[in-house]
Amino acid sequence: MSKLLTRRYIDQIKVMFGKEPAKPKEISPAAQTIHFYKKNNRTEIEQLKHIRAHETHKSHKWRNRRWATLIFANLLFVLSYYLDIQVLEGSLTASRFIGFHMADLNSALQVMLAHKHIITNLLIGTATVLLLWALLGGRTFCSWVCPYHLVAEFAEKIHLWLAKKKLVTDQPMDRRLRTVFWIVFAVLAVVTGYTVFEAISPTGILSRALIYGVGLSMLWVVALLIFEIFFSRRAWCRYACPIGLTYGVVGIISPVRIKYKLEGCFHEGDCRKVCLVPHVLDTVIKGRAVEPEVALGPDCTRCGLCVDVCPTGSLSFDVKGLSKLL
Fold first, then answer.
1. Where are the domains of the chain?
2. pLDDT at residue 1 is higher than 60
3. Which residues are CB-neighbours of 272 under 8 A, at least 6 positions away?
């Protein structure tokens, strides 16, 4: 990795914790050449963009794969419980898959903070999950497994429909709130000896509701969805959820990422419109890419929506190091 990409990746990590993206101070000669060509051939670029817009058919390939995976993963919990087949026991908070113990990273951290010591059995289950999501991409958990992500996605569609009718407007919030909430819930666990976050986590609430039945806690999930529909689009995932930040940190070392290729991009901006975390796509803005190829930051959920909507194939899934071997 070049020094520029290393510096850019460090900036992306800072952005994950709430820093606002900024225009890079230094761009590689190769990327500068491409930026210069686009700047001085705007007419040609606009013509190509117009042609591409009429040739391209929007794909839902990655969205459909993601929905199928998410539904299957959560349905497996349900079937294992009701059919008593003991394939996947427990819930997303803590489970056992064919005898292997697994524990959600954020939940395990909350428990150990509350108990004020490292619990060996819990650490083993956490290590299994840590390895899995380190390989698959950290926040991949959010978009490919978390049940709240799916229902919030449908709530977002309602929000966008209402916004189109000018009945609601999106109210963005400070992204640093998520880091603040992460710290607050960690401190609460230490001070109270209780995993406060687990009581209000929509991920855990929905997972347990699917398996064991709906309880009063579902009212909290409904309240969150109503807030996101009428006030702030995808507010919980963008501005509050500590789980997303925890898995984002894991994603720093992940080989699975979305890769951006500068040369073929017309900078339409469709990718940023559909992205849950558009700050990770800062590099697609004109003049922002520091190299001809740039991997998106660790806060990316790898949902594939940007890949589906990109008309030129400038965004694609990539496994670090593997593409060079193929």
1. 3-55+255-319, 62-249
2. no
3. 278, 281, 284, 306
